[in-house]
Write a structure and sequence with these properties.
The complex is a heterodimer. By secondary structure, chain A is mostly helical. Chain A is 58% helix and 0% strand. The radius of gyration of chain A is 11 Å and the shape is globular. Chain B is mainly α. Chain B contains 20 helices and no strands. Classes of the chains: A mainly alpha, B mainly alpha.
């Protein structure tokens, strides 16, 4: 389940008004979420939640569900 | 004698492979060994050296991935990864780039008076660029824990050496093929029809369109100084159509062969000349290669450089570096490097200045005939066509001469007419204009009515029977 907060950060970074994000959603399905914008999404999430991702953690993500779990894991460690 | 997807000798080989795969339906162990034997026999027709190299690099990759699957220590995992990357890149550098690099070193040392011998280029090792990239993607995906390692060396090899894709791609990821191998494939009637459809469409693209243009276009590209600007423009347009038809035709045939055997491969081309910007072009052209560079070069560079304050500088640098390497992948020549650099600059400009249009392009569906869309398509295609001049000419001197003669509208030189360039160009571009660029008509064919399908297949067969030129040429992307 993708939190409203994470969804808002992602869509804001992509300048998209509304889009459904589920656990299975992959980046390419979301308007504007291409490789050129990917790092901007990552940076926006890091800044909003006050977390830091390792490169290998981001590159291991398969879908938005993995991203949500990674954010939850980082927040739990704080 | 080397087998080719367009040779008549290939058909009985393919037919026998399909029958044997059908006879071993849902028996993955038997299918795995069958594919291994067939694929090795196919690749052996290109020479023993390639077989040895792919087996050795495959053994290294399999062993590394297996250890990655068991190792949790970060430093050990990095070291294992570098073993695989070194072996694969080492094979690429040795067989493909050693003469090129030696030439660079020799040129750099010349002002000092030192001279070194530059070796001749080694004979082309067909498929090297493709199977090393497939191997590296497998190990990288294991490193990033996106997939589990292959269960056996034979399983991994039957993926790596699989004959429809070995000589010119598509660069299929292990994540796409290993699950299909493991559960075993069962060939359905739809697989047979769709597979045959891909084969027919691919053969028409290659033999009827690309090869019909080849000799005319190659003459113009080889000696632009002999031709006037009108002819040079025709040559540029002709090559634009030829390279698309040749390579997408090959990819269609590879997909068709795989589908006949029950495997589902990813698309490699999705109407690339309908792109409204250069980023979209690269999401539609040689998709398996561009996504490889995106996932394994560009994104890691982005992650490594995210501390940079200026996001545009960071992204632009990483885009250009990625595309320069992508250009170099195509061949050991400054032409390809410059071609990659041109696309890198275009992508960087789009990244910096084109982002304001992204919402409009993605957020709403614009008609293909909207003036803004048509203009965007023309601009994008213009950049792509200029790039093809570097891609299709023998060296930089010829490429610049070609461009200069076009830009200055050279009127000296011969006008070399071709009855094929404009009609075939019109055919390809009108198709890109009229057909929804996200549809796949070949996949849709089995859903059409029987008369429509019969008409379609009959037309393709008539085209293959009557419109193939007497002199066909090898697939263009086999040389990469």
């Amino acid at each position: 389940m993708i939190s409203h907060e994470l969804k808002a950060v992602i869509l804001s970074a992509l300048k998209v008004n509304d889009w459904e994000l589920t656990d299975q959603t992959v980046a390419g399905e979301v308007p504007g979420w291409d490789s050129l914008n990917h790092i901007n999404v990552v940076l926006a999430i890091e800044k909003h939640f006050g977390v830091h991702f390792k490169g290998v953690e981001i590159l291991s993500l398969k879908n938005v569900g993995d991203l949500q779990r990674l954010v939850d894991c980082k927040l739990a460690k704080h | 004698m080397a087998l080719s997807l367009i040779s008549l000798e290939f058909l009985p080989f393919l037919g026998l492979s399909v029958v044997l795969m059908w006879a071993t339906a849902r028996r993955p162990a038997a299918q795995k060994w069958l594919l291994l034997v067939c694929s090795y026999l196919f690749y052996l027709s290109f020479g023993v050296v390639g077989v040895l190299v792919i087996t050795l690099t495959g053994l290294v990759d399999f062993s590394v991935a297996r250890r990655l699957g068991r190792s949790t220590e970060a430093i050990t995992r990095q070291q294992l990864l570098w073993v695989s990357l070194t072996v694969n890149l080492g094979a690429l550098v040795f067989f493909k780039y050693s003469a090129f690099l030696a030439g660079i070193v020799a040129a750099a040392l010349r002002p000092t008076g030192m001279r070194i011998a530059v070796p001749d280029s080694l004979p082309l090792l067909v498929g090297l660029s493709y199977f090393t990239f497939a191997g590296m993607s497998y190990v990288l995906d294991t490193y990033y824990e996106r997939i589990d390692p292959a269960q056996s060396f034979s399983e991994y090899l039957s993926y790596l050496v699989y004959f429809p894709k070995i000589i010119a791609g598509p660069i299929v990821r292990a994540a796409d093929m290993l699950p299909q191998l493991r559960r075993g494939v069962q060939i359905t009637a739809q697989d047979v029809e769709t597979g045959c459809a891909y084969l027919l469409v691919g053969a028409v693209k290659k033999l009827v369109i690309a090869d019909q243009l080849a000799s005319h276009v190659s003459t113009i590209l080889a000696t632009p100084q002999h031709f006037n600007a009108v002819t040079l423009f025709q040559g540029m347009i002709g090559y634009t159509v030829q390279i698309y038809a040749d390579f997408s035709g090959y990819s269609d045939m590879a997909l068709g062969c795989a589908r006949l055997m029950g495997f589902d491969f990813p698309q490699n081309f999705r109407m690339p000349y309908s792109a409204v910007n250069i980023a979209e072009f690269w999401r539609r052209w040689h998709i398996t290669l561009s996504s490889w560079f995106r996932d394994y070069v560009f994104l890691p560079l982005e992650m490594a450089g995210r501390g940079m304050r200026n996001a545009n500088v960071r992204a632009s640098r990483n885009i250009i570096v990625t595309m320069l390497v992508c250009g170099l992948w195509h061949g050991a020549s400054w032409n390809f490097v410059l071609w990659g650099g041109l696309h890198g600059i275009a992508l960087a400009v789009y990244q910096v200045y084109g982002s304001s249009t992204r919402g409009r392009m993605h957020g709403g569906i614009q008609s293909a005939f909207h003036p803004g869309t048509l203009l965007s398509r023309m601009l994008t295609l213009s950049v792509v066509m200029v790039g093809w001049i570097f891609f299709g000419t023998q060296n930089l001197s010829i490429a610049f001469s070609y461009l200069w003669r076009m830009v200055t509208w050279a009127t000296d030189g011969v006008a070399l007419g071709s009855p094929y360039i404009l009609p075939l160009t019109a055919l390809v571009l009108v198709t890109h204009l009229l057909v929804n660029k996200d549809r796949n008509l070949v996949e849709e064919l089995p859903t059409y009515s029987a008369p429509a399908r019969v008409m379609t297949y009959a037309s393709l067969l008539v085209a293959l029977t009557c419109l193939v030129p007497s002199d066909t040429v090898p697939f263009a992307y086999v040389r990469f």
